[in-house]
Fold this protein.
Amino acid sequence: MSDCLFCRIVAGEVPATVVHETPTTLAFRDIGPQAPTHVLVIPREHHDDVGALSDADPGLLASVMSAAVAVARQEQLSGGYRLLANTGDDAGQTVHHAHVHVMGGHRLAGLG
Ligand code: AMP
Ligand code: ZN
């Protein structure tokens, strides 16, 4: 059994509310939503973060980003949305399996 939480979600060992799937990606609702819509999009394959994913398989990173856009459209975030990938300790990445946050549904605070 993997000790990676998101690999365990991919394997069906940890429950998640899945909202979008492709052969190479999975999207599910964040357990601690920071916006009315807050979904995480991940590659099914384990990569530690988007930097490692970009190095190993840039096409898969593109698939993750396209899936994130598909989620935003499916969730009808017509007013706009934010795609965010925390990468490494300075960004506060807590789950070390590459993921993109899709957030929207209200006016989001600026980033600084
Ligand atoms: P990050 O801080 O960018 O690494 O984001 C990790 C995200 O995973 C956080 O927003 C958490 O709320 C979310 N999260 C942690 N555990 C789960 C889970 N079991 N199901 C869904 N989302 C989770
Ligand atoms: Zn993993």
Observations:
- The first strand starts at residue 18 and ends at 21.
- The mean pLDDT is 97.
- Residues 58-74 form the longest helix (17 residues).
- The helical segments are 5-10, 50-56, 58-74.
